Structure formats: structure tokens, C-alpha cells
Amino acid sequence: MRREVVLTGIGGQGIQLSAQLMARSALASGLFVQVFGSYGGMMRGGNTEATVVVSDEPVVAPPTVERAWSGIVMHHDYSEATLARLRPDSFVVVDSTVFEGELPQDLRRVSRVPATALAIEVGRKQVACTVLLGAFAAITELVPLESLVGALPAALPAYRGKLTELNREALEVGFRAGSDIARRDAVDGASRVAVP
Predict the structure, then answer these.
(1) CB neighbour class for 61 (10 Å; exposed up to 12, middle 13-18, buried from 19)
(2) Residue 196 counted as domain residue
């Protein structure tokens, strides 16, 4: 099994943190991981992208990921290059609160989650990507919620340690939203996007 996940958004939305959480969670689950991120020169508002490769075999470092199994899309700005890397049968989770524009028509499944709206309800819009990561985990079953929560203390920088509880709540809110989507898809007959 090998799964490539690309994450994209704008600086300040939590893309790099979510990639770290996914990677640490996969490691805790006994899988092999490679994670790498890139971001523009601006701290806030610039482009940011991360790629996480999860496998049951060692991952060659650094892997070249031309086509990805899935994506997490927080914002329409700078998303075009990331979306172009998705395979036609890919699965994508999108923050429907802020994403504007079109997604490739051949994507196997698109799940729209109002991550920023849910994050505001939790208490801070900056945890929107953590909400979306929780939804992604519920829908794909790539990593379990418990290991995502367990990865929070190590993934958050020391100066953000006080945000551990807020991010835990964001993951749980997102996981519930993703579980609702998965149940609805099961009733509608859509195929669940699970890791074999």
C-alpha cells in the first residue's frame, strides 16, 4: 500500500501542521512516511503546499510525487498546480467555506466540508485545516483519529502548546463531519475511499 496526499492552501491556514500531524500519526500506526513542504516567502497569505507519502514499505527519500492518491484543499489561491497533480481517480476534501472555483471534473470523489465555519464555531478560524484533516481521516481511514490527537503535542511548536486542546477539538469536530459524509455516501451507494 502506498498513498500520496497533497495539501494546499495559503500561509497561516495550518497546511504544514496538518502534514506533520498526518505523518506522525502514520508513524505511530506502524507505517512508513515521507513528508515535505514548500511555501512562498510570505508568512501569511502566500502559497503553501505539503506532500505526505504513507506506505507499508520504506519510502525512497525524497520521493517524486507526480500524481497523488488524494488531496486536501483549503483555498483556491495557488491550488491549480496541486490539483493538476491529482490522478483522475483521486479523492479530495475541500474547505467549502472559502474555496471558490472549479475542481477537475474527473476526480473520483469530492467531499466538501465547511472547515473554516466549523473552526470558527470551535473558537479559532486558524484551526480550519485541522478540522479538514479530521474529516479526511474519517472519510479515508488512512490514519486513526486517536493517533492524530496523540501527535498534537509533538507537532505543535512549543510556543503554541497552549493550542493543543483547541486543535484536539478541531480534529474531533472534523472527524464527526467526515463520518457524517461517509455514512451519507454509504446510504447513497458511493464507494468508500478506504485504504485496502
Answers:
(1) exposed
(2) no
**Number of Cα atoms under 13 Å in the Cβ half of residue 102:** 4
Does any domain span residue 195? no
Three-state secondary structure call for residue 188:
helix
The one-character DSSP state at 45 is: S
- Nearest partner of 10 among 35, 37, 40, 36, judged by Cα: 40
* pTM to 2 decimal places: 0.89
The pLDDT tens digits of the residues spanning 11-53 come to 888 899 999 999 999 999 999 999 988 877 655 667 889 999 9
Is 57 within the bounds of a domain? yes
Domain of 54, CATH number, reads 3.40.920.10
Instruction: Evaluate whether residue 194 is within a structural domain.
Output: no
